[in-house]
Amino acid sequence: METKLNGKTALITGGSKGIGLGVAEAMVKNGMHVAVTSREQTAADAAAEKLTALGPGKAIGIAADVRDMVAQENAVKRVIEEWGQLDVAIANAGVGHFAPIEEMTAEQWNAVIDTNLTGVFYTTKASIPELKKTKGYLITIASLAGTNFFPSGSAYNASKFGLVGFTQAVMLDLRQDDVKVTTIMPGSVATYFNDHTPNEKDAWKIQPEDMGQMVMDLLKMHPRTLPSKVEVRPTKPPKK
């Protein structure tokens, strides 16, 4: 039994580029309606226009900072106003600051933790009431950095280790309400993360459209089965 996705709705934080946009593109091509958020309304609107042109699903852009609980609540309300229901929430927004602990500033630490961990908490809290109504799906985008630590990664590792643990606990909290919860832990993805500009040298990396395919596969899976934690990495990275 494959879950029917045509006409379902989704909210994707940080959905104006990178992984979020790749997932949104896969969704609208499968007939889902998608709200993408960004801290900037212009970026959100530009992504929504591009997505709607792909069709058959529709898209809207919402300015909402994940570090603001009220903004997340308002984003969910906007989805309900537009389409009447929320079936899928993708907590994708994330940032990275990398430095040895002696050089890591309090401002950098707080930016990473507030976005990558507390921001997911806010998105989750805002989405749960509506996801319970639709027996929906919550997906968080973590990282292999949530299980593999590395030098200069104190803030990022802490946020992603915490996010993996957070998501797995939420999965246990919500499974009896028929809300499915998964965390995806990608390795190197060809995105704009950490001021990188995707280029031809990124061909070996996971592509945003690959992440979109993965999310669609999860959404289409039989309701009785839940891949609660998914690690994904490039098949053949360059030799070091």
TrEMBL record:
Record-annotated Ketoreductase domain positions: 8-209
GO biological process: monocarboxylic acid metabolic process
PANTHER family, alphabetized: 3-OXOACYL-(ACYL-CARRIER-PROTEIN) REDUCTASE, 3-OXOACYL-[ACYL-CARRIER-PROTEIN] REDUCTASE FABG
Similarity-based family: Belongs to the short-chain dehydrogenases/reductases (SDR) family.
Name of the protein this chain belongs to: Short-chain dehydrogenase
